[in-house]
Automatic annotation (TrEMBL):
Keyword Cell inner membrane: yes
Signal peptide: none
Family named by the database record: Belongs to the TsuA/YedE (TC 9.B.102) family.
Transmembrane segments: 6-26, 47-65, 85-102, 122-142, 162-180, 187-206, 245-263, 284-308, 314-336
InterPro entries per the UniProt record, alphabetical: Sulf_transp_TsuA/YedE
A GO cellular-component term linked to this record: plasma membrane
Name of this protein: Uncharacterized protein
Length: 366
C-alpha cells in the first residue's frame, strides 16, 4: 500500500466535502440568493429558513469542534490584521448585486452549471477572472489602494474585529428562523441546512487539525469558500506548472462532480424556461460574475465563505459582510423584479402549504 502525504489527504477530504456539498445543494437547491428571490417574488421563506439553519448549525458545530481540538479560529483570514470595514461593506454590496444580476452566487453557479445551465459557466469564468485580476492582475492597482488604505484601516481600528458573543448571535438567528418557518414542525424539515452547516465544521477540522500536521506544505486554516478558490481553479487548469492542487480547488472540483452525480438522479430541475424570457442572460452573467469576483475578494468571501464559514468563527467582519450582501441582494432583486428581469422557473414552498392547496405546483426552482 502506498502512503499519502498529509496535504494529499487534505486535498482528498476537500474533494469529498465538495462532493457532499454539491449533492446536498443540488438535491434541495440550497441557495442564499435564491432564498432572496423566493421571498421577493412569492414571499416564500423555505430556502431562507434552510440558510439560517445552516448558519446556526455551522456556528454551534464549529465552535464545539474548535474548543475540543483547540483550534484558534482567530488565525483565519476572517481576523486578518489591518482590516478595512469600508472595503468589506463595499465588496459585500458589489457581491450582493452581482449574485442577483447573474441569477446565482458563486456556489449556486457551480451547482447550476453542473446540473445543466451552460450560462452559469460564463458567470464562473467572470468570477474567476475578476477575482484573480483584483488580487494579482490589472484591477489590483485600482482596488488595492482602497482595500489597504491606511486612513480607512486606521479608522476601522477604532472598532476591533471582535468575536460576537455566541449566545447573542444564536438568539438572533433563532428568532429569524422562527419568523421564517412560522411553525416549529417545519424546522425539522430543514435537513439540507443542517448538513451544510456540519460540512462547514468538518472543513475547519480538515485544515485546522489534519492539515496542521503537514510537513511537506503549509496548509492555511480555512473553510468552505468559493470566490478565490474558483480563481485558483482557473489558474490551475491554465498554468498548472506554477500552481498546486489545494484544499479549496479540490473542493470546487468536488462540488461540480457531486452536483453532476445528484442531477443524474434528481432530474426535475431544468433551466430551459428562461430561454423564452426577454432577458439578456449572457450580459447579465458577465456583469454579475465580474461584480462577484471583485466584490468577493474585497469582502473576504461570498455568501458561503462569509455567511457560513466566516460567521461560524463569530467574526464581526463576517456579520458585516453578509449583512451587506443581503441588503444589496434584496435591493437589486426588487429593482430587477420591477423591470421584469428576475426570472422565475420554479418555486419552493413548504410541504404543508402544498398539501392545503392542491392547485399549487409541488416543487419549483428559482
Amino acid at each position: 500500500m502506498f502512503e499519502l502525504e498529509t496535504y494529499e489527504i487534505v486535498n482528498i477530504l476537500g474533494l469529498i466535502i465538495g462532493l457532499a456539498f454539491g449533492m446536498i445543494a443540488q438535491k434541495n437547491q440550497f441557495c442564499f440568493s435564491g432564498s432572496i428571490k423566493d421571498y421577493v417574488l412569492i414571499k416564500s421563506t423555505k430556502r431562507g429558513a434552510s440558510v439560517i439553519m445552516a448558519m446556526i448549525v455551522a456556528i454551534i458545530s464549529t465552535n464545539l469542534m474548535a474548543n475540543h481540538f483547540e483550534i484558534d479560529l482567530t488565525q483565519s483570514a476572517y481576523f486578518k490584521n489591518n482590516i478595512n470595514y469600508l472595503a468589506i461593506i463595499f465588496g459585500g454590496l458589489m457581491f450582493g448585486a452581482g449574485m442577483m444580476i447573474a441569477d446565482g452566487c458563486s456556489s449556486r453557479s457551480l451547482v447550476k452549471y453542473a446540473q445543466g445551465d451552460s450560462n452559469a459557466l460564463i458567470t464562473l469564468l467572470f468570477i474567476a477572472i475578476f477575482a484573480y485580476a483584483t488580487t494579482k492582475g490589472f484591477l489590483y492597482g485600482i482596488f488595492d489602494p482602497f482595500i489597504n488604505n491606511s486612513f480607512l484601516i486606521e479608522l476601522s481600528s477604532n472598532l476591533e474585529n471582535f468575536r460576537i458573543n455566541i449566545f447573542v448571535i444564536l438568539v438572533i438567528l433563532a428568532i429569524i428562523l422562527f419568523v421564517l418557518t412560522k411553525k416549529i414542525k417545519r424546522i425539522f424539515t430543514l435537513f439540507d441546512g443542517v448538513l451544510v452547516g456540519l460540512l462547514v465544521a468538518i472543513a475547519w477540522f480538515v485544515t485546522g487539525v489534519i492539515g496542521q500536521d503537514s510537513m511537506e506544505r503549509d496548509i492555511a486554516l480555512s473553510g468552505i469558500s468559493f470566490v478565490y478558490p474558483t480563481a485558483k481553479t482557473l489558474e490551475l487548469f491554465t498554468y498548472y506548472e506554477v500552481n498546486e492542487l489545494s484544499f479549496g480547488v479540490s473542493m470546487i472540483i468536488g462540488v461540480l462532480i457531486g452536483t453532476f452525480i445528484m442531477s443524474s438522479m434528481n432530474k426535475k430541475y431544468s433551466f430551459g424556461c428562461t430561454a423564452n424570457k426577454n432577458i439578456n442572460k449572457v450580459k447579465y452573467n458577465m456583469i454579475g460574475g465580474a461584480l462577484m469576483g471583485t466584490g468577493g475578494i474585497m469582502a473576504i468571501g461570498c455568501t458561503v465563505g462569509q455567511g457560513l464559514t466566516g460567521l461560524s468563527t463569530l467574526a464581526f467582519s463576517s456579520a458585516l459582510a453578509i449583512v451587506s450582501i443581503f441588503i444589496s441582494g434584496v435591493i437589486t432583486a426588487r429593482i430587477l423584479n420591477k423591470y421584469e428581469k428576475l426570472p422565475m422557473c420554479f418555486i419552493f414552498e413548504w410541504d404543508d402549504e402544498n398539501k392545503k392547496d392542491k392547485s399549487k405546483p409541488l416543487d419549483f426552482q428559482i
